[in-house]
Amino acid sequence: MLYSVKGTLIHTEPGMAVVECGGVGFKCFVTMQTQRNLPKLGEETMLYTHLHVREDAMDLFGFYNKSEMNCFRMLTSVSGVGPKVGLAILSELSPEQVAMAVAAGDSKTLSRASGVGPKLAQRIALELKDKVKKMEGSSGVGIPEGGIPSAAGNAANAVQALAVLGYTPADAAAVVAKFDSSLPTEELIRLSLKAMASRF
Q1: Can you give 17-33 as a three-state secondary structure string?
Q2: Same domain? 109 vs 175
Q3: Which range of residues forms the domain containing residue 53?
Q4: pLDDT digits (tens, 9 = 90+) for 104-138
């Protein structure tokens, strides 16, 4: 419903920012990563948003870039992961780190976030990895089990990690292919996200 808000930053407090647009102040719950990227009070800002509707409330969540918003949506699609847990994870880890942890099945990294125990971290890693596998199967872009221990493996792992962030494996593969596959996986993810931000 609300894709983004752009206006004057009029108030901040831990985990929250208020952006005034056309005389209306939009209260957005934000991650610590987004909070660090906010300008000074009184300056213009733009946040990508996700509206979460419950029986008793409608909450707006704001993100400084699309990859953080996509990652939040993927995380909250996992059973047992609500918006608060999604924010906690993205306050502790960047979207790239979440994607890498899921692609590698590294639940220990995910459990570093406040409120995420070992069982929930394992569920997040498993459910999101399964979603990525289904996406790969439907698009015809496959990634070998356990990755490939070569330069091409870095590119394959980057494609899988980008799929965790909500990009289709076909789109991710097309962008990753433009870069040197001998680069570290995290660098390939970072460069690809930068390139895709201007495309989508």
Answers
A1: EEEEECCEEEEEEECHH
A2: yes
A3: 4-64
A4: 888 999 999 988 999 999 999 888 877 766 655 54
